Structures are given as C-alpha cells and as structure tokens.
Amino acid sequence: REEDSTTRGAVEDEGWHSLTVVLLNLLGMRPVVADAAAPTTGVTLKKPSKPPRSAWEALLRSEFHRAYSDGEGRLLFGESSARHYRHTDDEDGFSSDDVDDDNAHDLIADMLASSARATDRIERDATTEKCDDGGAETPPPDSRSWYEQRAVIFDALHLLHEDARLVSHSRGVAWTRRLGTLLLHVAGEMSPHMIDYEDHYRRLLGTYRCASNACGSYSISSLGEGGDDDEGGRIRRRRLSNFDICPCIMTTLDAVLKLGTVDSTVVEGNVVAYGLSGYKDLMEFGLNGTCSHTWLVLRLFGTLFDRNGVLSKKIASSDDENPIPTTQSHRDRAAIMAMLDEGIYHPVQLQDELPAGVVLPLLEAIRRCRLDPPSVNVDSASGDCWPPAAFDLVGRNDLAEFLSRSRRGGSSRRRNQNVGGDDSSPAAASVDPDNDGLVALEDYSSMIFPDDNRVREAARLLRSSRPLFLRVPRPVELSDHDYERSKQERLLLICRRSISQPLGRGMLTLGTRNVRSAERLLIPNIVLAGRVPPANGTLALDMSSCPANFRVWPEFHNGVAAGLRLPRAGADRNERTITRTWIKFNKPDSSEATNSGQTPPPSYAHGGFLMALGLRGYLSALTTTDLTDYLTQGTITTTVGVFLGMASNKRGSCDPSISKMLCLHIPSLLPPSFIPMDLASTVQAAAVAGIGLLYQGSSHRLMTEFLLNEIGRQPMKDQNSNDREGFALVCGLALGIVNLEKGASTVSGLEDLRIEERLHRYISGGSDGSEFQGRKEGFEGTVGGGTQGEMDRNSRIYEVNSLNRDVTAPGATLALGLMYIKSHNVSVASSLQLPETHFSLDYIRPDLLALRVISRSLILWDDIKPTSCWIDVQIPSIVKSSVNLMKDAAKRAMSMGNVSDAGPIDEQTNSDRADKTSNEITDFDPQAVRQANAYVIAGACFALGLKYAGSANRSAASAIIERTLWLLELRDNKDVVSLTQRPDSSTLITCLCTVAISLAMVMAGTGDLDSFRLLRALRWKCDDSTLYGTHMAFGGAIGLLFLGAGTCTLGSTPEDVAMLIAAFYPHFPILSSDNQYHLQALRHLYVLAVHERILEACDVDSNEKVCIPIELSVANSNEPVQVSTPFLVANGSKFVELRLKSDRYYPIVINSKDLNTHDNLRTLFVKRKAGHLSYLQDPNGLRSLSMQTGSANREAFLKSIKLFSDDAMLTSFSKYFCFSSFDDNKMHERFCGDIAYECLREEKSDIIPVYLKLFRLIESSGRNKIGVDDIWDTKILRTYAETRERLGDEASTSYSLVNRETLSLLCEHVEKSFHTTESELLSLRNKNWWESDQLLGALLVW
Fold it and tell me: What confidence tens digit (pLDDT) does each residue in 813-861 have?
C-alpha cells in the first residue's frame, strides 16, 4: 500500500518483500494497524476501506497478469483460472467489479491449492480438523474451508523450502533463509499448534534470519470479531498443516540410510518410522515438479538402501513388475537407471547441487558400477543391458562407444586412418616412397605380429616397385657380350616373377588406406630393372625380346592392387570422399600428350583401378555417360574393369541398366538387325562373368538358358577360337552363380530346360541331342543369330554336332557343383564319380578329375573332413593300387641293386629306369596314373581349402601341408621311388600351385609362420621351367596368408565359395598375356569373399590402439581361449563371451550368441585405469604408480599426474591447488597433494569436491563456525558409514571413496565444537530451547 512505501524502500530485495506480502495474505495474515501497539484479545478490527488502487490490485489488473493467465497461467493454475477474468472495454482491461481485494486472495488461494496434488490427497484422507477450543466440524467434502486452503499452501511452501535445502549450493542460503523466516513467522503466529514447525525452523535458522518488515507487519492477532475471516466471531489459532509431524528431508534421508539395518517387521514405531513419517505417504502420490530434487534424492536413496521395500515400493517407477533388487550390485544398477530417468547424465550434476553428505553415497554407487558394470549383450538391447548413456554416467565411455556403434551398425575403423600416409605431403613421400603402401604397412602390423618381421619379409617378397637384386656369376671364359646377354636372360626371369606379384600385393594391402577428397591415389610403377652389386648400378630390362603385350595384364593387376588399398564402402563413411568427382579426378591425364600432337600411351592400370573401385563398392557413383566414355575411349583392360567392377558393385541386384551394358557386348544376345561387332574374347568373357555376378542367385530364365547354350556353343570367328576354353569356363561359372543353391529345389519355369541332363552331356561328351540342338539354333536365330552367317563360320575348327568335352566339361562340372552346393544330393554327386578302371581313366583328361573332386565335395559339403584319410578316400582305388604297385617295384629294384640312389646318376637316366621298371610289371599307362593321382590329391586339398577357408583349422592345414611337402619332394628329389610317382612337370607345378593356394585359404590372414616358410620355399625356384602363372600363384598364396595385413579372413558361405572358385581356379596362365583357360581379371573376385574380423582394442581417451589380454569363451566348452589384441577372429569361431583380463584397464564383459557374426565388433574400446601405463609403454608393469617411490618436486609430481591419468579435473586440480613443496605449515596444500595422489592411485577424481568440503568442515568446526547444514552433512555421512559397517558389505567397503579414518576425524572435530553439558540440555526439556540460546539448534541436530 502507499503508506508502506517507506518500509519497502528499506528492504534490500523489493521482489521478495512483495512476494512475502502476497504469501502472508494467502495464509490469512492481515496487516497490523498503526494504533495497535499492544494487541488486545477480543478487539474487533474493522476492515480498512479499499483504496483507489493498491499494489496487489494493480498487479491483478495489469496487462501482464491477463496475458499470463491466458498463457502460462493455465499450466500452473489450470484451465479454470482464466475464466475468473473477463475482457471489458474499460481503461484497465478488466471490469472493476470482477475483482476486489478479498476475492483476489481467495482466488489465488484456490489456484495454488489446486496445483498441490500430493498434499491435497493427503488432506482429503484426514477425518478430523485440528483446532483449539473444540474447533469446528469438518466441512462437507464438496467444499474447501478457509483453513484447508491455507494448510495446503503452507505445506507446499514447506516442501519447497525442504527441496531448496538440497540445492542450497546452487541457489544460495539466502533463498532458504528468507523462505524459512517467513514460514517461521507463520508457525509462530499459530503457536502452540505448530510448535514442531517452529522448532524445525529455529534449528535451521538459528541467528541467521532475514529481517523482514513484511513479516513484522502481518499477524493473525489482528483478526477479531466482525472480520470477514472470523467464523463465529472467535479468533482461531489452529494447525496450518496436514502433516502430523513436520517433514524434514534430512531426517528422512537419515532414516532411509538406516532401513538396510532394520527389520521391516519392527519399522513401525521406532526412530526410523519417525524419520519416514513426513515423506513416506507423500511419495506414494508423487511430488509436484517444483520439488524435483526431493523426489530424485528419495528415489535414489530408497533404491540403494531400502532392502526391505518399505519406501522403495512407493518411489519406484510406475512399472510395478520390477522386483526389489536383492544384491548390492543390482541396487546400484537400478539406481543408475533411476538417475537417467531423472535426467542425470553426469556426476557433476549431483556434485554441483546436492550436499556432500547426500552426494557421497550416490558417487560410491556410481564408482561401484564403474568398476563392475553389467555385461554387454550385442544381440539384444533388452534385459539387463544398459543404454550407452548409463555407461557414460558411470564413466565407462568405452562401453558406451562400443555399444552405440554395435547397435547402429557402425563400422568406423580407426586403423584405416593414415596407414598409407598423406600422398600430398612431403612427409608422406618419405614414409611411402614407392606409393605401394608396403613401408607404412610394416609399421602398422607390428602390433599384430610383434615378435618377428614376417610382415616385412612378406612385403619384400611381393614388392615390384624397386629394382631387383641381380647377381650373375661370370665364368672366366665368358666374353663381355655373352655376359651382358646372360644378365639380361637372368633379369628377364626375375622380372617375370616381379610382374606377377601385384595380385599378392593387393591381398596384403587390402583395405589399409584412407584418402581425402583432394588427394589422388597414386599407382606404383612396375620396375623392370636390376640392381647389380657391388656398385648397385641399375640395369634396365631389354624389352626387345619381350612380346608387345608383356606388361598389359600385369599393369591391370597393378591398378587393381592399388585400388584395393581403399576401405570397403560403408566403413568410416568413405562414400562422402570417394565420389564421382574423385574418380574422374584420378583418371589418367592425357592433356600433355594431346597438346604435343602425340597419341597418349594407353593406361592399362586404370582399368584395374576401376575394377577395384567396383569390388570395394564405389564404382556405382559413375553415371551412364561416364561409363559410355570409358567404354568408347578406353582400352580392353578398361572395358573389362568397368564390366566386372560394375557387376560386382551391383551384385545380385539384376540392375537393368548394367544388364543392357553387358548384353550389348555379347554377340549371342544381340538382335539379328544389329551390325556385327568385332569384340575381343576377353571382353565377351568379362561381360558373361558380369552377367553371372549381376544375376547372382536369381535363376533368371533368359540368362539361365543363354548361359546353358553358350557353354556348348560352336566356334564362330577365327580370332576368338584361341580363348574358347576360357569363355566356356566363364559361362559355366556364371550359370552356377545365377542358380546358386537352386539345384535342391527346382525353380518354377526352368523345368523344361533340363539343366542337369544337359550339364551331364557337357561333362561326358557326345552329341548334344536333336531337341537341344534345335532349341539352341532357335535361340540363336531369335536372339543372337544376327551375326552368325556363312562368313562368320570358323575355318579352323569343325565339330559337327558332337560336343568337345575338353572345352565344355570344366564349366559344366563347376556349374553343377555350385547349383547343388551343400545339398547332399547323392544322385547328382554320383554323376561326378571318378573312374574305377584304367580304360575310363584314359578316357578323361587328368585335370578334369580335380574339378570333379571339387564339385562332388561341394555337393557333399558336410562329408568333408580335415584329415589326410579323407584325402586318401578321394583317390580311386585303381589309381591307389597302381601307385602302390609302382612304388613297390621301385623299392624292389633298389633292394636288388639294379638302381642306386646314392651315386651321381643323371635324372633322365633314373626316370627312364623308373619307367622301364613300371612297364615291366604293369599293363597300364604309368604317366596317366601319376597325373590322376596328383590331380585328385590337389582337388581334394582345394576342397579342404574351400570348406575351411579362413578358419585357421590346424587339422586341415596339417593335411594340406603334408601333401604339399610330398609334391615338393617329388619336384626336388631324384631317387627312383620319387621319380616313379612323379608326373610331368606341368602337372606337378599346377598341383603345387593348387595346394599352396588351398593352404593359404585355410590360414588366410593368420600369417602362420610354418605356412609362410613353406610358401617361401616353394617360391624360391626361379628358372625357365617356372612360369608366370606359377609365380602368380605362389605370390597370391603369400598375400592371402597376410590378407589385409592380418586383419581380414575369408568366408565359407555359398556366395563366398563361388567367388573363391572363380578367383583361384586351379589352372594358371603360362604367359603374362595368357587368358586361354581362365580370364586373369577373375583372379581378384576373392575380394567379394573377404570379411574383416580383426578384433582391436582402442583406448577411448587417447584414441590409440593398445595391446591387452582378453579371454574368449567358446560355445559348448569350459576352456576359454586366452589371446591378446589385436586378434583375428577366424571364420567359424563360436565365441559367445569376451572378457577383458587385465588389471590395468577397467573390466569388460561382452555376451553374444556368436561374436563371429557381428562385423561391427571389430573395435573394442577400453579405458585405462589411472596409475598404469599401456602394455606398449610398460610391458612388464615396472613403471606403474604403485612402483613409484614418490618425489617432493612439484614438476615431477605434475608430470606423473599427466603420465598416469587423462582426467582433466585431476590434472587441473594438481596444477592449481596442490603443494609447491612438502611444507607442514601449508596444511591446505599438503592436504590437496595427498588427496590428488590418492585420487590418482584409486581412480576417484569425482570425490575431489567432497574432500574439499570435508576439509572445510573440519576447519570450520575447529573455529566453532560450523553451520546447521554442515552438521546435517556430517550426520548423514556418519549414519552412512555406520550402516555400511553394520551390513558388512565387502563391495561397498572396498569401493568406498572416503576412508573411515577421515569420517571419524570429522565427527571428532564436530563433537569438540560443542561445549554444552548434559545437565544444561536436560534443563531445556520443559521450555522452548531457543529462549535460552539460539545456537543450540546445531547441537540438537547433531
């Protein structure tokens, strides 16, 4: 009012003064009149006349209040609040008759009371109303009395005051003191009915009250007879609260801490029940959102300490199906989930607001969960598995990162970053001067193979970008010209091996390079030069003696190897970098040659680069115009690379645009109206292979019939007849891929093709049949016969209507095996039975026996066993008996002295004698038996390699190694027994290459030393008899052994098996340009069967790869596997649990039905404990913090902090708070140094603020300046420590953040700060204690 303007001016906070006046009016207080110096009981005070405009009325009439009532006021007071006001046309915006002073008071009281839902429900449960002098009868249920409204408002203000005590650190004590002073005034006015509230506030406030003129100006004593609020003409003093006992949040928390040690049957009636009485029933209905901190703390404390469910059932979430946690770990985890539910995502949120005594139990629960988190189940997000936010809350960001990536299917790989360096920087040039990625790969793989230099040796064997070491001994009689010619001959031999190595290098460097959008991926050069000692002069190869196409396909393989260094699409979101612009940016630059008027040299490597982009999943970024440009202006290798790359990128999609592009380059699929085109046989074969990849598993009718006819197609033009075998093989492979696994169930619409019958004819030979021949001629006439005329007939080959099974059998055999793979169709498998007589053995080409063994094994997949006995079973009995007969004859001849294996007898002589010995005792062809024996063994080993590809199966590897050593012995030994079993040189080399590839498939990615030594021994021979394909096979085997630098392995699904057969078909080229029996570009299809299954550990804080020991539990086995990261999870491994076994890192347990099926589990994020170094920095654990003796030097101390911990809080605390020297006079600095060392050693930097709070409490108690809030903190800490000791919980005791000695010291200092005797306290029982001493409140709390 206007007369109170001077009073308001004297108040420091006018806003609080106005609020106090409003609240006092709502609680029924009236201002004391000026002439009422001494209030007299029973005097009737007349209501003062309403002034023209009061401050309160002005507020209610203001435009702000009208807008607030129509807007936010609806949320606070309900929809009915706005209906009390109506818009008018007067100057105030409201009708002057709508609102007066008293109506406004009642209106606001109604709205506030309606918002207090919890206290309202408690009040309605009461049956009587407390009042003095007998009181009055309880009002009817459908109405609300004057006192009921004000009791609800008072209780709401009291609960708000108690909630503010929990966050006094953030809001400040002035806020709670002001509200407490107001409530103390109201409780005093209602004395003695609210003596418990008065006692409560006096204990809290003591002498720290806020002087409020408003409280002194309002009193209930001003109400008297005749007043509007006087019911019955009597002055009423009654309890303005619906609680029987004044609720105290600290008393309730202290009681909750004791619930764990009290039996639920005796809770009622004891001190614990007294402490819970204020909030126990209230929490059942829920609190208003304003008291969120009270709800949070009670919910968390009830979850942690209410073992009997006295309080936790009331404050639990709405899901009543969750049982009460029984063990401490379950209670801790339930509390963490409750924190997330309440919006707590970091411990700092608790430390910044809650008192030290309240936050300590919560921090200890967080620490216990940090050290013992729940296991991570990557198969399902349900059950006990936490969300990533829960792991972040407890400080386990390693598990949070791991879980979030596994759930979203992320495949980001940190290992790909900068493995190959940055090509655009000079530093990168020094790291990788050859641009082949082998130098950087040696450093990267040092963690995978830390004990030796096997990766460096493999890189040396597969490198083709440096001059080769050339040493040629010079006889004395040799002239200079002849010596130079001999050096060129020797250089040609080793260069032949060098140009075959890109295939293996692509396997070794697979997926080890990341690029940026502004970088070009440089393709390394193939250096055809030698380095001649002792001066190491460079000698270039004379290319005049080499064919013109000597470097065409090696350059193609070189481009593929360079492109395969890129990670697969989908890893680290590389699609954003490798775009259409980036691909065109890497196109060879021909502007210089064009400007000079010269024809630019063809870039054969770029075609391989395009194929690699398709294999890695990036080539689909090109548009149709880009593809047209490549096909019209590129070379043959570019066309082949585009076909196979796009088909691989779109594998199984049946994309019509890619299908049109491929069909356009297959003459048999062109309409008759098309002009005949001269297409190279390699282009046609690549187009057919692309058809197979594009329609994989679709059983497309048109493509199936086309491929089936193409296998037995008659030769057409003369220029395409040389590669006829390779084209038929590709057609067979494509037919098997299109109908992969479709043989077991006949596809509707293909029955009339009788595929199995026709394939059997292709395998056995003979006539194609009149029916099939007519269908084929009709197909060619309607679809692709336009180019077939008399002028197109082949003038060199005429086969009439008979089938040339030497051409059709390889493709048909593999097609049949792929169609019925894993079907166990005995009938189909019997059609591939090996011959059992010498006559039938002479009737079949020996290398076809290996293909029959492979296809038969594909059909009878489960019958393959990783033993040497299974390989022996595959050999026909007639072959086995004949070989044994020849061996026995040779041994008898040696024993009779006819032949000696000790003397220097010529190899040809021994061979002739061996053949003569065999012919004397047999009537069969010994060479045919030897060839059949070798090919069957090679085919069986190849089948083993397919079945156990990438599995690292030791039994399978041992069986293959045994046969490899046997073949190697046949190649190198000169005794008669070996020569008796030795086939011709080409057969022996082919079988050696096959078994080497088979061994590498089984041990793919493992880098097995025994296998590596064997393959290196096979590779050593380099003479005229060692062909280009032989070097390619051995180099590919070494690269496959170190697939992806030891990070990748092969799969064994039907799709993977089909790609492996196409890539490692057991027939290898003779020359570098040879594509007669197998298209060389198909050698890279193994990439489609590669799986990245390296399990790496990455420090989540430093983002560095680390080596840690882990334990893998195998399904159906009680013996876990102890390994160390990085670890290659082999194909077929049934690991169901991963457990970290190291005391330097926080524990991790990951569960899954099969860890091998999760490709996104390649990176295991770990978190290092403070006080320890990584295994790379400290392999033996001799430099850990526990081994340090300490130092008084500040710089050394700070250095150790930074070395052993990455915690920013601990580092900053040590820098700015810790001691500069260990001086006993600087108590605070010494204390900070001690707790910094303790927090570092025990990994508990979160407790630093609590430690500082305790130190302040100890100092305050020593100066007798300790406050009531500090007393409550200490009391709750004491109760928590006593509860923890009574329970005897080892987990809670071992994971405690504050030791028992510190708490005991704190309690001792608090006890010493009080000097009141027991007799003085007893004398205050019968009177108000505050009348004696206001400072006794803290002591009474204690």
Answer: 999 999 999 999 999 999 999 998 888 888 899 999 999 999 999 999 9
Name the amino acid, one letter, at 159.
Answer: L
Structure tokens at 1066: 């057991």
Rounded Cα distance, 502 and 557, in Å:
6
The span from the CA of 458 to the CA of 935, in Å, is 29
**Residue 1222: is its pLDDT beyond 50?**
no
Taking residues 529-533, what's their average pLDDT?
91
Spatial distance between the Cα atoms of 483 and 539, rounded to a whole number of angstroms: 13
Q: What is the mean pLDDT of the chain?
A: 77
- pLDDT at 1172 > cutoff 80: no
Half-sphere exposure of 138 toward its Cβ, with a 13 Å CA cutoff? 11
State the Cα–Cα distance between residues 615 and 1085, nearest whole angstrom. 8
Closest CA to 578 of 609, 608, 618, 538: 618
| Residue in 424, 472, 462 with CA at minimum distance from that of residue 442 | 462
**The dihedral of CA 457, 461, 465, 468: what is its sign?**
positive
Torsion, Cα 1241 1244 1246 1252, to 10 degrees, reads: -60
> Which residues are bridge partners to 1122 per DSSP?
1111
Tens of pLDDT, residues 269-280: 566 777 777 787
Q: Do residues 1112 and 715 lie in contact, with contact meaning Cβ atoms separated by under 8 Å?
A: no
> Do 1015 and 996 meet the contact criterion of CB atoms below 8 Å apart?
yes
Are residues 509 and 501 in contact, defined by beta-carbon separation less than 8 angstroms? no
Cis peptide before 534 (omega within 30 of 0): yes
Closest CA to 102 of 110, 112, 92, 114: 110
Per DSSP bridges, beta strands 802-803 and 1163-1166 are: unpaired
Q: What is the DSSP string of 1231-1276?
A: HHHHHHHHHHHHT-GGGHHHHHHHHHHHHHHHTT---HHHHHHHHH
Q: For 299-315, what is each residue's pLDDT tens digit?
A: 888 888 877 766 655 55
The 10s digit of each residue's pLDDT in 142-159 is: 445 667 778 888 888 888
Please give the sequence-ordered ranges of beta strands (E in DSSP) within 435-487, or none if there are none. 468-469
3-class secondary-structure state, position 400: helix
Q: How far apart are CA 664 and CA 675, in angstroms?
A: 12
- The pLDDT of residue 292: 85
Candidates 373, 416, 413; CA nearest to 397 is 373
Range 1013-1036 burial, b when 16+ CB lie within 10 A, else e: ebbeebbebeeeebbbbbbbbbbb
| Alpha-carbon gap, residue 592 to 585, rounded angstroms | 16
Kindly give, in sequence order, each residue whose CB lies less than 8 Å from that of residue 969, ignoring residues fewer than 6 positions away. 978
For 1306, the token pair is 């704190």
Q: Rounded CA gap, 957 and 951, in Å?
A: 10
Of 183-197, 776-790, 991-1005, the least confident: 776-790
Phi-psi region of 43 (alpha: psi -120 to 50; beta: other; left: phi over 0): beta
Task: Give yes or no for a cis peptide into 387 (omega within 30° of 0).
Answer: no
3-state secondary structure of 1151: strand
Query: What six digits make up the tokens of 544?
Result: 């005049």
By the 8 A CB rule, do 359 and 1251 touch? no
Taking each helix axis from N to C end, the angle separating 656-663 and 681-694, rounded to the nearest 10 degrees, works out to 160
On whether the CB atoms of residues 330 and 324 are closer than 8 A, the answer is no
pLDDT digits (tens, 9 = 90+) for 470-505: 988 888 888 989 999 999 999 999 999 999 999 999
> Element (H or E) spanning 219, and its range?
strand 218-219
Integer Cα distance of 857 and 864 in angstroms: 7
Check if the beta carbon of residue 808 is closer than 8 Å to that of residue 712.
yes
User: Residue 1124 phi/psi, 5° resolution?
Assistant: -135, 145
Amino acid residing at 775: R
- Cα–Cα distance between 51 and 1 in angstroms, integer? 8
